[in-house]
Design brief:
Rossmann fold; two-stranded antiparallel ribbon; seven-stranded mixed beta sheet; alpha/beta; globular
């Protein structure tokens, strides 16, 4: 997952070449990647992913970007349930992307590209939807701010970000996994306020308590048509 603010700016778009030192791998460490999908499936991540996709209300002809796509579970699921939508998954981890591409090898209208949420290599107004699943907590505050600004930039007027992530202060987290990760996560940011500061009209649409993952919050953030 992206945590660095390196790169060179080219107009409004940015370019960055990932290295093994400036992002958090999907499984925390490269050695754990072969077990990542089985681990997240056992935790019930599929239900979280499905709820996020349902909230996004995808429609035929839309262009959809997932930031921090990891091994592609959300992007591939969205493609299978909405075959007439164009899907792009973006992540800095080349090993995770290789797994994602294998999952999508028999699907059309889907691709996976290296990229950082805070430095998206796409033109302004490129997407109808942006998705983010359990990724934002990996980012420090400044990187969240930069990522929110990039999401607002690449969304078309009226386009929407749909985001799900852990919520709650580090001292008030419920759930075994959430407690274990609390010291490394950045859970204190008010995501609705942060996304609003980027120019998006944001609301928290649901909060659910997961016995292992802890408190999970869903957000919808819209790029206004007059900005």
């Amino acid at each position: 997952m992206c945590q660095s603010l390196q790169g060179q700016h080219h107009g409004r778009m940015t370019q960055h070449r990932p290295t093994s030192r400036d992002y958090r791998p999907a499984a925390g460490r490269d050695a754990f990647l072969p077990f990542y999908d089985a681990f997240t499936a056992a935790l019930g991540a599929a239900k979280v992913h499905g709820a996020l996709i349902d909230q996004a209300e995808l429609a035929a002809g839309q262009r959809v970007l997932e930031i921090g796509c990891g091994t592609g579970n959300v992007t591939v699921r969205a493609k299978r349930t909405h075959p007439d939508v164009e899907l792009v998954g973006s992540d800095p981890d080349p090993l995770a992307l290789a797994r994602a591409r294998r999952k999508a090898r028999n699907l059309n209208g889907i691709r996976f590209e290296q990229g950082y949420g805070q430095q998206l290599p796409y033109a302004d107004g490129s997407f109808d939807r942006v998705l983010s699943a359990l990724m934002f907590h990996h980012l420090d505050h400044d990187t969240k701010v930069a990522t929110a600004a990039e999401v607002a930039r690449v969304l078309r007027p009226g386009g929407r970000l749909h985001l799900v992530d852990f919520t709650g202060h580090a001292h008030g987290i419920h759930g075994f996994l959430a407690q274990r990760m609390a010291k490394a996560a950045h859970l204190d940011d008010d995501l609705a306020q942060l996304l609003g500061a980027a120019g998006l009209d944001c609301e928290r649409t649901a909060t659910r308590r997961h016995p292992v993952l802890g408190n999970i919050a869903y957000y919808r953030a819209v790029r206004p048509t007059d900005r």
